Amino acid sequence: MTADAIRPGDDPRRILSEVRGLAARVRRDQRLTWVALLVLGAVTLLAVPFDAIFMQLQCQADGCTFARRGMLYYWPPALLIAYATIAWGYLRAARARGVGGRVLPYAITGAVTAVVFTAAYVAAALYFPANPPFEGGPVPFWWIVLDRLIAPWGLIGLALLVLAAVERNGPLLLFTGGYLALVLLVLPTTEGMSMMGANLRLSMAVPQLIIGIVLLAGAFGFAKARRP
């Protein structure tokens, strides 16, 4: 018994188009972009009270000095748990649909970002109190961008770039580009704001709230677009 893969009357171009369409459908079925954004958005919003509660403030008449210890207590384990949860969701969905999952590079990148953030934060906490940068002058904008890039929300954007590449996901790439532009270039800084007590905590909370809301909005948009 034999079976021809291609019947004599079949159009090779039509068959190739169908194969490409099937491959694209498999790639779409592998994507759980909304799950990743939902988890990361929730983790970002939960960080706000930790940052406020564990922020160490020493205020005097001319202003405040502060240390954001809550970030160190919260973000390293939170990032590891978040990426483990996302990887589990992807693998579970892959088994349910019977298609392969390619989330491992993204999960590894997420774990590496947690290590990078922890190392950078500890190094900054040890070095900068004794060697304050740009003392007596304005902080250059490039320094602000670098600081935001190695912060948890910047590292989340870098990991999303890896996910977009793994999934060949153009919409996620566009979303991540806009997200990184927002995080690195648009969000307000604390310069020019009141640096006393509750106002300082509020000025630190606002960017995190904006980032969390953007991630959750992205999750909603990708989940809605996924519906047949």
From TrEMBL:
Keyword Cell inner membrane: no
Keywords tagged on the record: Membrane, Transmembrane, Transmembrane helix
TM regions (residue ranges): 32-54, 74-91, 103-128, 140-165, 172-190, 202-223
Cleavable signal peptide: none
Stated name of the protein: Integral membrane protein
Lineage, broadest ranks: Bacteria, Bacillati, Actinomycetota, Actinomycetes, Micromonosporales
